[in-house]
Design goal:
Helices cover 67% and strands 3% of the residues. The protein contains 52 helices and 8 strands. The protein is elongated and about 120 Å long.
Length: 972
């Protein structure tokens, strides 16, 4: 028979399988320590010598295979004299000791079961050996049960159990056990103290570490080199370099191990000059630096971002005769590069390392994979994965597996991430967290829920990192609703949020505009005295601004005592996105005056403010600042500049930036196509798209939306249909609502109303406001009040508070002479509480923005402006301008209508620009509403009379007026 392997925790249910007769089964159940010993010491010694030879296979030379151990153990136990307790104790202890030594843990479990069957009392001697078996097997709970049941525990027992907890990272329990050990009167030795000091170092608990050190001195324990090294390391890790230096100087004999701890300590704290001085002192005292010394220096410089210095010492190390850079040296350079965002450089170093034949370890691989993740380099990451598969040790490493799971999930290969997760042999909590975060990052709601359930079923409890990964992951994906569901789930299980959780939940509230919950979380922060750190403070600003409470966001910003770059970026971005562009630019200036170092995010946050104001001068200044500060390394900065110049009317500058880009991504192409489209250069957009395809790039939905919009703005019907069909036929992409809306806009603007209505009916989903809005806008162009009424009916249901739809329908009625219907629409607006924003135009002159509103005569130069408007009307009428009174929406006589046209805000802004700038200066005007047909016609004539380039941006598109011609070709 064979006793099956059974952990101690369930030994009462261990199974017995018959395999004939066995000496193990024949042993009687009795306590051998109750029987008087009848053997002499010489007889016991003889049997133990024979037992040791039989068990280990050693008899003056040679050895047997480990498979024979079970049989030898069975023979020893069968020959054991149960009447002699000393012999029993020695034999059991010998077998257990060798079980641990030979890693035959299964046999150790069987021996424990036999002890229980025979009723053998676990004494101090056997207990320490048995404890060693369970500790070696990693059965923590079983080891603790054995330890707790021991009647007497010696220093070896305490050392074994503390070692288990220390290796597992449960440093609090390690320290508790030390205090229990001291309370029981057991004197710690040179194996115990290093474990306790290591625990204090990991927890950065200086007070406990100092107490343990004082206790060590009080009992007169001087300690060997290992103990002194652990004390020194504890002081350093707890941030007390002063005490560490004093302790170090008092050590009489300092070997290279001691010196390396000091060098590493200084280097890790960024005190690199002191680290180098320590190396000089080390040499002066006759101790030669070794590989560890050099690696500490290289790592210190790399971690501080001083890569030239790190490379310098790396090359010096390569020129030494005694040793060369090893895997630790290379990994230090790679990790430092990734830590500071130089992922491409990290991969170059990794490639050189492999080419030079240095085999990477798990940390090297995980760091290189992290660089691939940051750069979204799927092919490179797969190559590294392939290398790991060839090296079995790396393929089975959990750190490598976890980094690969994170890599595949973030590089849009969730299925591969799950396969990789399944192949991790020993999944730890980090493994589960990585996969859950990956699902969240890709928006896989159901899969995340299923995996979380499986995780709990396997007895693995989620920690705060688990919940943070889910909340922040779904928030980053844009699914704030799901993020808040997991936040609620976390609250239900009683896990308290930390700053990361709160930041993620606040961002989710901003996404879904849940101001109520956002305020509750803010209240929780205040009640629990959670510091408004960078993350929480900036998240509160973003949440309030996302919920249309910019004033509260500004109030939070004002209350923050510490404002770093992240906080400044948040408030600048909040103002820019809320339409407070001038405030955003003012804050940028204030940030510079506050001596806060701006970064690329600052620039990307500020550039949209310039775009909305068409503030070309400020945009150019920011561009120059970006170049001076070397912030033009990120592709997204270049993309923002292309967009800014395009929205400021400088399309040539946009194209120049695009052409000069060192590396373009898909967004770069999409933005440039969009810029061409909004300016009415449809053929240029098409030509760029053709080149895009010719070089083998693949478009996405945004590409086609921008391309179809460009076709719509330029009236390119055939081309629009061609690219709409191309989505399905060549790229297997189903058109989304945005592309359908573009096609409706294209056809209806061409007056193809029957075809448009048929197209809408065949859409695979219900038309949204963009579709009906496009149709309504086309009805204005072609003066089709009946169809306009039909489209407006849907819009009033979908967007009941959008004033533009009511105004547009009223204007269509007015243009058709249906004044009563127009009046009814205005009454409907009053009933529903819908207000129309007044027409407003603004222009920048001499670093100042001037705004003009219809009916507002408060501008200090209004007399000169009015005189210029009258003069312009006289001049342009001379060359053929005829006022289009159809755009006067009041039922008055023609003379009053013509006078009313003179007061439109865009004409006032244009007149002011003409009298305030030198001749030939291009003028850039912005209007908050669509420019009216009469102003469009008048501006064409003015550009010819005044010989000025006039760029006008309304809420729909750009118009470039040059020498009496508009870029839209009157198709708008």
């Amino acid at each position: 028979m064979e006793i099956l392997t059974t952990p101690y925790g369930i030994h009462f249910n261990f199974a017995i399988r018959s395999k004939g007769t066995s000496p193990l089964h024949a042993l009687p159940t009795r306590n051998c320590f109750t029987v008087a010993s009848t053997c002499t010491k010489s007889q016991i010694f003889g049997k133990l010598t024979s037992a040791h030879q039989s068990f280990t296979g050693f008899s003056g030379g040679g050895s047997v295979h480990r498979n024979g151990v079970l049989g030898n153990a069975s023979m020893l136990l069968s020959s054991m004299d149960l009447t002699n307790p000393d012999e029993c104790t020695e034999l059991y202890a010998l077998i257990l000791q060798n079980c641990r030594k030979l890693n035959n843990l299964r046999l150790g479990f069987q021996v424990h079961a036999q002890l229980i069957v025979n009723g053998v009392e676990v004494c101090e001697f056997i207990g320490s050996r048995l404890l060693g078996v369970y500790c070696k097997a990693g059965c923590v709970e079983d080891a603790r049960r054995v330890f707790d049941k021991m009647s007497e525990r010696n220093v070896f027992s305490w050392t074994a159990i503390m070692d288990v907890y220390c290796e597992l990272g449960d440093y609090e329990e390690t320290i508790k056990l030390f205090y229990l050990m001291v309370d029981e009167g057991v004197r710690p030795d040179h194996f115990v103290f290093p474990k306790v000091f290591k625990a204090c170092s990991a927890l950065k608990n200086f007070q406990v570490g100092k107490d343990v050190y004082d206790y060590m001195l009080s009992i007169g324990f001087e300690g060997n080199s290992c103990v002194k090294g652990s004390v020194l390391d504890m002081f350093i890790k707890c941030g007390r370099m002063d005490i560490a230096r004093h302790f170090f100087e008092e050590i009489e004999f300092k070997d290279v191990f001691m010196w390396n701890i000091m060098v590493s300590g200084y280097a890790s704290k960024g005190e690199l000059k002191k680290a180098l001085r320590c190396v000089k002192d080390m040499k002066r005292e006759g101790v030669n630096p070794d590989q560890v010394t050099w690696n500490s220096i290289i790592s210190g410089y790399a971690q501080s971002g001083q890569f030239e210095e790190a490379s310098k010492y790396f090359l010096e190390m390569g020129g030494l005769e005694d040793f060369k850079p090893n895997v630790v040296s290379w990994t230090a350079l790679i990790a430092g590069s990734v830590q500071h965002g130089y992922d491409s450089e990290a991969l170059c170093v990794f490639r050189k390392m492999v080419l030079q034949g240095v085999k990477p370890n798990s940390i090297t691989i995980a760091t290189a994979v992290s660089a691939c993740t940051n750069l979204s380099l799927l092919r490179h990451g797969r190559e590294i994965h392939g290398y790991c598969i060839k090296v079995e040790v790396l393929d089975s490493d959990s750190l490598v597996g976890n980094s690969l799971v994170d890599f595949y999930a973030k590089c849009r290969s969730v299925k591969v991430a799950r396969q990789t997760f399944g192949m991790i042999k020993q999944k730890d909590l980090v493994s589960w967290n990585a996969m859950l975060a990956g699902y969240a990052f890709r928006g896989c709601h159901e899969e995340a829920n299923e995996l979380l359930s499986e995780m709990k079923f396997r007895g693995i409890e989620p920690d705060i990192i688990t919940w943070n990964g889910l909340v922040t992951g779904f928030t980053q994906y844009g699914d704030g609703k799901t993020a808040l569901e997991f936040f609620q789930m976390m609250h239900n299980v009683g896990t308290d949020p930390n700053a990361t959780t709160i930041s993620g939940a606040l961002a989710a509230c901003g996404h879904v505009r849940n101001l109520k919950l956002g305020k509750e979380i803010h209240g929780y922060v205040v009640r629990n005295h959670i510091e408004l750190s960078t993350g929480v403070g900036s998240a509160l600003i973003s949440m309030y601004s996302g919920c249309d409470s910019l004033e509260v966001a500004c109030s939070v910003f004002s209350e923050l005592s510490m404002r770093d770059v992240v906080v400044w970026n948040s408030i600048i971005s909040a103002c820019a996105q809320s339409g407070r562009s001038i405030s955003a630019l003012d804050l940028l200036r204030e940030m510079n005056l506050s001596n806060v170092e701006v970064d690329m995010v600052t620039m990307v946050s500020a550039l949209p403010a310039c775009s909305k104001l068409a503030a070309l001068r400020q945009g150019k200044e920011i561009h120059q600042f970006i170049i001076r500060r070397g912030l033009d390394t990120g592709t997204f900065i270049w993309n923002s500049l292309i967009d800014m110049y395009g929205r400021c009317g400088s399309i040539q500058k946009s194209r120049r930036i695009f052409d000069l880009m060192p590396q373009r991504d898909l967004v770069s192409w999409n933005v440039m196509i969009s810029v061409y489209g909004m300016h009415g250069f449809g053929m240029d957009a098409i030509n760029l798209f053709q080149y895009f395809r010719a070089i083998g790039l693949k478009p996405n939905h945004f590409t086609f939306t921008n391309l179809l919009s460009a076709c719509s703005h330029s009236g390119l019907i055939e081309e629009g249909w061609k690219y709409f069909k191309m989505m399905k036929t060549e790229y297997a992409m189903d058109p989304a609502m945005e592309q359908y809306a573009c096609m409706v806009d294209l056809m209806s603007r061409a007056g193809q109303f029957d075809e448009t209505l048929e197209f809408i009916e065949k859409m695979p989903f219900e038309p949204n406001a963009a579709v009906w809005g496009s149709l309504l806008g086309a009805c204005r162009i072609h003066c089709n009040p009946d169809l306009a009424e039909y489209a407006a009916g849907y819009l009033f249901e979908l967007e009941p508070q959008s004033s533009g739809n009511y105004v547009l329908l009223a204007n269509i009625y007015s243009a058709a002479g249906r004044w009563e219907d127009a009046a009814k629409i205005r009454c409907l607006m009053k009933e529903r509480g819908v207000t129309k924003p007044p027409g407003c135009s603004w222009i920048e002159v001499k670093r100042k923005f001037h705004s003009f509103i219809v009916g507002d005569n408060s501008h200090p130069l209004m007399e000169q402006i009015s005189a210029k408007v009258e003069r312009l009307y006289f001049d342009i009428k001379e060359i053929g301008y005829v006022p289009d009174t159809n755009f006067v929406l009041q039922d008055v006589d023609e003379s009053e209508k013509e006078f009313s046209l003179c007061g439109h805000s865009e004409k006032m802004a244009l007149a002011f620009g003409l009298i305030s700038t030198p001749g030939g200066t291009p003028l850039r005007i912005i209007k908050n509403l669509r420019v009216c047909g009469d102003c469009h016609s008048a501006t064409k004539f003015i550009s010819k009379v005044e010989k000025r380039d006039i760029i006008m941006r309304d809420n729909y598109r750009f118009h470039h007026f040059i020498d009496g011609v508009c870029s839209c070709g009157d198709y708008w």
